Amino acid sequence: MKAIIPAAGHGTRFLPVTRVVPKEMLPIGAKPAIQLIVEEALSAGADGVVIVISPEKEIVRRYFEEDPSLAPRISWAYQTEQKGLGHAVLQAADAVKDEHEPVLVLLGDALVAGEAPSAKMAAISRAFGGVSVVGLEEVPLERVSRYGIVKGDNGVNGLKGLEGVDCERILRLEDLVEKPAPEAAPSRLAIAGRYLLDPAIFSLLASQTPGVGGEIQLTDAIRRLLADRPVYGYRYPGVRHDIGNPAGYLKAMQAFQPSFVA
Ligand code: UTP
Predict the structure, then answer these.
(1) Residues with CB under 6 A from ligand 1
(2) What is the pLDDT of residues 200-218, one digit of tens each?
(3) Torsion angle of the four alpha carbons 258, 119, 194, 67, in this order, in degrees rounded to the nearest 10
(4) CA 160–ligand 1 middle distance (angstroms)
(5) Nearest to 105 by CA among 7, 3, 218
(6) Which residue in 42, 25, 4, 29 sits closest to 252, CA to CA?
(7) What distance in angstroms lies between residue 101's CA and the mean position of ligand 1's atoms?
(8) What is the pLDDT at residue 159?
(9) Would you kindly state where each structural domain of the chain is located, as residue ranges?
(10) pLDDT (tens digit, 9 = 90+) per residue, 181-200?
(11) Hey, what's the torsion of the CAs at 119, 121, 124, 126, to 10 degrees?
């Protein structure tokens, strides 16, 4: 399995520090946040990680290249214009083009405290014969309009080889609505931070027209993937922290390093 970590965004919600320090490099304890994400990918079974950065974020590359234990497993892709998450993932396509199995995508600014979702998502994918699986989080109704919200059948039973995964947390997606109004939301389950995607996603991204904000949205391409191939969701039990803003960053620090902030 290969993993992609998009980390080329501008980080405007964390200005002014992000003028010179990428948000992904902010420390959680003594490690930059993105290292925890690389470690999640490797412990889920990824044998190669592609990190997507912009030319302004070379410091991320320098950091990993100085660590011989991590450097051989990391390769680099560049996004020179910030045209959205889907566009960032597409920049890694060449690096994973020979893949036949789903590719793990982990957002560079999303840390999940507690149980890491990626390993469980990989197990679910294998149990269903190599399907796509997206990580889901339940969000309050007033916040559904910020996310891709899924519609699906809850609970999948009787699967072999899925020890340690609560089947009640798995659902098969029927539809996906991008940023719905609360009254139009099919559920409160949002796609959040972790994706394991069939390699067909790359050709869909290549033909994806800009969506919300004029950006190439990953969820728009997943919606098209869903029309053609099964996509499952895993309502992961861990707590996601968005380190792309100061309050989320502090909560992540508290969750990962409680003794520092007691
Ligand atoms: P965000 O939605 O947090 O966007 O991206 P952003 O641009 O980084 O931050 P703000 O909104 O300006 O504060 C989620 C993840 O996707 C990456 C980001 O680096 C982050 O890890 N991303 C986003 C890209 O790599 N390229 C993009 O064009 C957009």
Answers:
(1) 6-13, 52, 79, 82-85, 87-88, 107-109, 244
(2) 999 999 999 999 889 999 9
(3) 70
(4) 37
(5) 3
(6) 29
(7) 26
(8) 64
(9) 1-108+241-262, 117-237
(10) 999 999 999 999 999 999 99
(11) -70
Sign of the alpha-carbon dihedral angle for 28, 33, 39, 45: positive
CATH fold, domain 1-108+241-262, is Spore Coat Polysaccharide Biosynthesis Protein SpsA; Chain A (3.90.550)
Q: Which of 109, 243, 249 to mutate to test the pocket of ligand 1 (most atoms within 8 A of CB)?
A: 109
Which protein residue has the closest C-alpha to ligand 1 atom 5?
A: 9
Taking CA atoms only, the protein residue closest to ligand 1 atom 21 is 108
Rounded distance between C-alpha atoms, residue 258 and residue 262, angstroms: 6
Distance 8 CA to ligand 1 centre (A): 6
**Which of 26, 57, 107 gets mutated to test ligand 1 (max ligand atoms within 8 A of its CB)?**
107
Q: What is the mean pLDDT of residues 222-228?
A: 95
Residue 160's pLDDT is 62
Number of H helices, E strands in the chain: 8, 13
Q: How far is the CA of 9 from the centre of ligand 1 (A)?
A: 4
The answer to whether 1-108+241-262 and 117-237 have equal CATH topology is yes
Percent over 90 (pLDDT), the chain: 87
Can you tell me the distance from the alpha carbon of 110 to that of 34, in angstroms, rounded to the nearest whole number? 9
Q: How far is the centre of ligand 1, averaged over its atoms, from the C-alpha of 13 (Å)?
A: 10
Averaged confidence pLDDT in the chain: 94
Tokens (6 digits) for 222: 């997943």
Atom of ligand 1 nearest to the CA of 18: 13
Question: Which position has the higher pLDDT, 171 or 157?
Answer: 171
* DSSP character at residue 95: G
Topology of the domain comprising 117-237: Spore Coat Polysaccharide Biosynthesis Protein SpsA; Chain A (3.90.550)
